[in-house]
Specification:
This protein has a single domain, classed as Aminopeptidase (3-Layer(aba) Sandwich), CATH 3.40.630.30. The longest helix is centred in the N-terminal third of the chain and has 14 residues. Helix 4 links the parallel strand 4 and strand 5. It is built from 5 helices and 7 strands. The N terminus and C terminus are likely disordered. By secondary structure, it is an alpha+beta fold. A 7-stranded mixed beta sheet has the order 1-2-3-4-5-7-6, with helices on both faces.
Length: 204
C-alpha cells in the first residue's frame, strides 16, 4: 500500500484514510514494524497527531510532509529500540515506540513514545497489549532496568492504562505543552523491570 499524506490535507474535513474495518479480536497480531511499514505507520501517526494533539509533543504540521525515507529510518528496529504495531487483518490499528533515552549513562533506561490506538478500535484491550509487549521487549535488552514515559496529566484514561501495567508517577512538569494557546501539564511515570527479568526472555 503506497500513499503520501501532505500538509494540504490538514484543511480537509475528512479523516485520514486509515482502514477501520473490524475483525475478530483473535486475529490481532502485534509485531515489530520494519521499513516496509513506513507508509502505514505514518498514516496512523498523522491521524493521532490530528485527532489527539494534546497527547503528543510533536504536531501534525511538523510531520505531515516528512519523507517516507525518514519515517522508515525512524521505525527501523535494532537491538535497543523498536516500534511495535497492532494489526487486525492487514490494518495497522495501534502502535507504540520503545526508544533510547540518551547516552551511556542513560543506557539502563528506555522511553515509551508515540502510543496511539485508532478510535474505532479502542476499548478492546489493544492499548494494554501494546504496552505489555513494549515492556517485554525492553526487558530483553541487556542492562535495561526501567522504562519511563510522559502522559498528559489530564488524560485519566491513559494514566489508568499505564498504572495497570505497573507504571508509577514520579513527577509533574507544569505547562509542559502549549497547544492552541492552552497549557497542559505532563505527568512522568516509571516502570521498573525487576518483575520482567531484565535482559532475558523472548522478543515479541
Amino acid at each position: 500500500m503506497a500513499f503520501r499524506v501532505t500538509c494540504l490535507q490538514r484543511a480537509g474535513a475528512g479523516q485520514l484514510n486509515v482502514p477501520t474495518n473490524r475483525v475478530t479480536h483473535s486475529t490481532m497480531l502485534i509485531r515489530r514494524l520494519t521499513p516496509d511499514d513506513a507508509a502505514r505507520f505514518q498514516e496512523l501517526r498523522l491521524q493521532g497527531l490530528r485527532e489527539s494533539p494534546t497527547a503528543f509533543s510533536s504536531s501534525f504540521e511538523e510531520e505531515c510532509d516528512r519523507p517516507l525515507e525518514v519515517v522508515a529510518g525512524r521505525i527501523t528496529p535494532d537491538a535497543g529500540r523498536a516500534v511495535l504495531g497492532a494489526f487486525e487483518g492487514d490494518a495497522l490499528v495501534g502502535q507504540i515506540g520503545v526508544g533510547i533515552d540518551g547516552g551511556r549513562k542513560l543506557a539502563h533506561k528506555r522511553i515509551i513514545w508515540g502510543m496511539y490506538v485508532a478510535p474505532d478500535h479502542r476499548g478492546r484491550g489493544i492499548g494494554r497489549r501494546l504496552v505489555q509487549q513494549a515492556l517485554e521487549f525492553a526487558a530483553t535488552i541487556p542492562g535495561v532496568r526501567q522504562v519511563t514515559l510522559g502522559v498528559n496529566a489530564a488524560n485519566t484514561a491513559a494514566r489508568r492504562l499505564y498504572e495497570s501495567a505497573g507504571f508509577e508517577a514520579y513527577g509533574i512538569e507544569p505547562a509542559a505543552l502549549l497547544v492552541d494557546g492552552e497549557l497542559h501539564d505532563e505527568m512522568w511515570m516509571i516502570r521498573r523491570l525487576d518483575g520482567f527479568g531484565a535482559g532475558s526472555g523472548e522478543t515479541p
